[in-house]
Amino acid sequence: MKIRSIPHLISQGFISFFRNGAMTTASIAVLIFCMILPGTFFLLIDNIDRFLEGIDDLYVINAYVMNGAGEEDIRGIEEQISKIEHVSAYTQVTSDEGLEALKERAPSIKEILNRYDSETNPVPHTFKVEFSDFDEVHSIIRDLNAITGIDEVKSQISVYEGANRLKSLFRVIGIWIMVILFVVAILVIMNTVKLTVYSRRQEIAIMRYIGATSAFVIAPFIVEGVIIGIVSAVIALGIQFCLYEITVDMVGTYGGTAILGSFVNDYLVIIALAFLAIGIFSGVVASSICVKKHLNV
Amino acid sequence: MIEFQDVSMAYPNGTEALDRVSLRIEDGEFVFIVGRSGAGKTTLTKLLLREERITSGRLTVNNFRLDRMPARKIPYLRRTMGVVFQDFRLFKNKTVYENVAFAMRVVGEKVSVIRKRVPYFLNLAELTDKADRFPDELSGGEQQRVAFARALANNPQIIIADEPTGNVDPEMSRDILNLLVRINKLGKTVIVVTHDWDLVNYYKKRVITLENGKIVSDRVGINVEHVEQYEAPYVQHSRDTDSEKTENNGGVAE
Predict the structure, then answer these.
(1) Taking CB atoms and an 8 Å cutoff, what residues of chain B touch A210?
(2) Cβ atoms B214, B38 nearer than 8 A
(3) Which of A32-36, B23-27, B206-210 has the lowest mean pLDDT?
């Protein structure tokens, strides 16, 4: 096939695209679903990650020392913490510093807090233990709890684990929906291309008699599949954008900052590329299978 | 050049369509291939176009060895031949001009060349004034001439006409054959598959007669004794008018 034949073949693909109105629309509709549903799950998962990143002290375990512990006790506890495996760092917040920090965080109860002095301060001396690997967090908590003088150990592990379970669930559902819809999309596009093959059967036979190569015969069908894929991707991107913006408006902001990520800044490029890839890939695969099956080329 | 050497061809159901056929058609020849239905004419045409493969023997067409040619070379073989069918097989949604131009587009011809050559072939087929018409707006004879113009578009060495007069009236048949003779005079090899004995007899060209997959006659003009067995009325008619036709059309009949 010569390069100068390409414009002609592309135009033939467009002609077929418009000729099979109903089936082309059906193919595009299924492909749009095939893109939007996994796209939605991707956005959900990414926003859960954003939520986790926004949690203070996610990678910190707070170990509260029993009230009344002396400096000697605290030094002993510190020594034991320093020996715990997988602890990347730790800092200490004295009772007084903790009280001051609480006053800043909760100005509404500042007056009540002002009544406490060093002797009556209820805020315990705290070790902020940092780690880098969530897989080791349970063993660190167990070791901290085993230290005499530690009253209570608190972490965000339950939030992290809950969010991760949700992410895994969304990921599995998203992948399965994508796989099922992808198969459906392939079948529908194959049907659309089959219509073109049948409507052009005689034309194709004549083309063969006058020496058309297989590439020349096949190319318009592949182009048709690619056009279906690209059009679906563009429409799906538009719908995904609108749905996301509506969701952003509904979720609102927290402290003047949007809770959800920005579609244009954070997701537009990756989703556009993913949709185009899904669209073009399914279009090419469906057309190729169909042409191979019905044209014997 | 076309050369069949001991060519046999059997269909998958066991029907033997050609049985050890040997023949040679030189460049620039004009050949009629005749025979009854089922004699093997269509199979012979299909073999030339590599629509079917031979079962045994050796078949060479325009330097292509068809018995061992890979499928990807078929388009290039077919570009060396122009084929015209009884049912014309034109693109109904294309004009006369576009039908001819499309054949050139298929082989990737430049637009400038297409613009230059299509009018030439339309003129040769006397279709210049019908260039913008669609096939359904033309008579059978005119459609067949479009098919010829398209067959010639890529300058093939061989023109194969499969029952070219089957769908046109007798007067138009003569015009079509005259066009083929003109094409032959351009140096093209012309193969006409037909069972129109009248026409075959009129032109006094090489006639290859097939019967049950075998060549039973290969000579200039029809073999009257042989044909008499199954086409008696035509032959009788041909005999009666033979000398008269030759006299009236001395430039055409040989």
Answers:
(1) 78-79, 83, 102-103, 106-107, 150, 154
(2) no
(3) A32-36
**Strands B158-162 and B81-85: what pairing?**
parallel
Chain B closest-CA separation from residue A206 CA (Å): 7
Q: How confident is the model at residue A1 (pLDDT cuts 50, 70, 90)?
A: low
Report the complex ipTM.
Answer: 0.78
CA A63 to chain CA mean position, Å:
33
Q: How many CB pairs under 8 A join A and B?
A: 46
Q: Distance, in angstroms, between B137 CA and closest chain A CA?
A: 19
Output the DSSP codes for A254-293: ETTEESSPPIIIIIHHHHHHHHHHHHHHHHHHHHHHHHHH
Distance CA A45, CA A38 (A): 10
A4: nearest CA in chain B? B108
Interface touch A210/B150, C-beta < 8 Å: yes
Domains annotated for chain A, with CATH where assigned, are 3-54+160-295 (no CATH), 60-155 (3.30.70.3040)
Q: What confidence tens digit (pLDDT) does each residue in A252-262 have? A: 776 666 678 88
DSSP code string of A165-230: HHHHHHHHHHHHHHHHHHHHHHHHHHHHHHHHHHHTHHHHHHHHHTT--HHHHHHHHHHHHHHHHH
CA distance A170 to B178: 76
Residue A1: closest C-alpha in chain B: B108
Q: Do A203 and B106 touch (CB under 8 A)?
A: no
Q: What is the pLDDT of residues A199-213, one digit of tens each?
A: 778 888 888 888 999
The stretch A75-87 carries a mean pLDDT of 89
| Closest in A2, A205, A211 to B75, CB measured | A211
pLDDT of the residue at B210: 93
> Measured between CB atoms, which of A1, A8, A210 is closest to B103?
A210
- Report, at the CATH architecture level, how domain B2-9+28-247 is classified: 3-Layer(aba) Sandwich (3.40)
In this complex, do B105 and A5 lie within 8 Å of one another by their Cβ atoms? yes
C-alpha A128/C-alpha A137 separation (Å) is 13
Closest partner CB to B79 (pick from A1, A203, A211) = A211
pLDDT at site A129? 92
Question: How many Å is the maximal CA-CA distance in chain B?
Answer: 54
Q: Name which of A146-150, A291-295, B98-102, B160-164 the model is least confident about.
A: A291-295
CB A174 within 8 A of CB A38: yes
